Each structure stands twice: as structure tokens, then as C-alpha cells.
Amino acid sequence: xxxxxxxxxxxxxxxxxxxxxGNRIYVKREDLLPFSxxxxxxxxxxxxxxxxxxxxxDCVVTYGGxxxxxxxxxxxxxxxxxxxxLIVSPREACAPTYNSRMTELFGAERITVPxxxxxxxxxTLIQRLRAEERRPFFIPGGGHGNTGTQxxxxxxxxxxxxxxxxxxxxxxxxxxxxTGTTQAGLVxxxxxxGGSETIVGISIARKNPRGRQAVADSVREYLSAQSRxxxxxxxxxxxxxxDAYVGNGYGADGPSDVIDEALLRYGLxxxxxxxxxxxxxxLAYLKExxxxxxxxxxxxxxxxxxxxxxxxxxxx
Length: 316
Ligand SMILES: *Cc1c(COP(=O)(O)O)cnc(C)c1O
Description:
Rossmann fold, six-stranded mixed sheet, four-stranded parallel sheet, binds pyridoxal-5'-phosphate
């Protein structure tokens, strides 16, 4: 019987990586979170399971495609507790991947429907489970919502403590931004602590204004739930969502040159869907703006299984 969420108060390391075109690059290794290959979905899911553990729920319902890191982590956390996990999945993303094979291994049940039916399927499923006197707990796709945002407010706190103990001050934080929850958490942390660094979410799929809006909405939702008042201009300024490096969208044309080089040069594993795109985006951003002499923190948000999918496909 597991009595903690599997992560507890583990603090992920920040390593100095290299001096790149005049900037000192550090990496916060969220991929090393000690549960199911780590990553930002593990940090978020840990907080959801803290809630589940006291709730009397007897099954977990969530949403995501076959390559979803979120579904793998949630299915694994559910399995450690002997809880049934049901995943509603869009038919459009159902090619098998290492993540989907692991969710199978963890005994999760996948319900595959056309993407337009996802919302209704989740509603019906939850109603059906309740009618069967089950007690489902719903986790939004990607660990979205205030609980997921909280996870990255916590992460921001870790970054602040590192800055204080190691006497370094970051000018920029870069990371892969998808649903925007990770970014919203970091931005809320910055606003609540009065941080001065620029947080740049490198979009892995969404274009603006939608992508930026999603982050800003999550920031407002979290702050209002905390009854914290931050001027609208402060929120608008703090949300930098850069959609210049999405290529052809989600999962498409991952930057193999950057992935191979990061591994060869630093032993740093990146993936084509998230961290590789973000790392390439960061380097381009620094170059295009001719930034130098800065302390830069790259947040490695995980996604290790996607690296192995990449490796499989590379041979084809
Ligand atoms: C989901 C994910 C992201 C994006 O996180 P959001 O909170 O949805 O913006 C980034 N990197 C990896 C590896 C992910 O799995």
C-alpha cells in the first residue's frame, strides 16, 4: 500500500549545462521526478492523487491520446493504489506508442472515440459509473486546472530557493508549453513572489492568441481561487507565449538535429514533441534577440518515452 503520492517533497536538481552563445544555460530536471519516468505530468498528478487518496474515490477517469505522458503517469499512480483507471482517447491519436503500451501494462481501460465525441463520452461515462455506485474522480486532460497550476507554483518556489542557496539569479526561464498549466503555475509563482525573470513558454502546438489566452485564463483562475488580486496589466505582461517554433503543429517535425546533439554533447535526453522543440526554440529566441551575458533556466518537462518512439521511427 502506497502512503504517499510517490513523489513526496522531492526537489528536482538544477544543473549547469553549458555556456551557449554568451549565455549560461542551466536545466531544471523535472524529467528526474522519481515516479514513472518523471516529467511535469508526474508533478501535477501527484497533487491530484493527494486529493484522490482522501476522497473515497474508487476509480479515476481522465483524457488523452496514445502518446500522452499524462495518461501514462495517471494510469501508473492509479495502479499503485489498485484503483481502476479509465482513459477516454481520441481515435485520431491511436497509433501505439511506448506511453500507450505502458498504460496497457498498468491495466488502464481505454475508450476510443472520435475527437468530437470526447466531451460527451466523459460525461456519460462518469454518469454511468455513478449509476453503478462507483465513485469516479475526474482528472482533466494534461492535469489541467488549479491543481495542476499549483504543482508549478511549487516548482517556481524550488527555483527561488535554488537561486538563494546557489547565489544565481535567472534572467529567463524557458519551457515547452502545451495546455498552458505548467506556464500558468510558473507565472503565478512569479507574480506571487514578485519575481523579475522573463518566463517564455515555447508553444509546441497552439498558435496565438489562443495559446496565450489559455495561459492567462489559467493564471486568473488560480489567483482568484487564492483570493489574490494582481492587476490585469501585470498578468498580461507576465505571460509570454511564443508560437514561432511550432513547425507543423503537435508532434510534427521534431527537431532531430537538436535532440541528437543534446544527447551526444551533454547526455541530455530530449524528445521531438515537447522538450526538443522547446530547446530549439530557446536557442533560436536567444539568437534572434541577440541576448548574451544572461543566466538562463531551461525546464526539462520530461517525456522520456517519446524519445524512444523517436528512436524507433528514426530507423524507418
Ligand atoms: C504535457 C507536457 C508539456 C506541456 O505542459 P502543459 O502544462 O500542458 O503546458 C511539456 N512537456 C512535456 C514532456 C509534456 O508531457
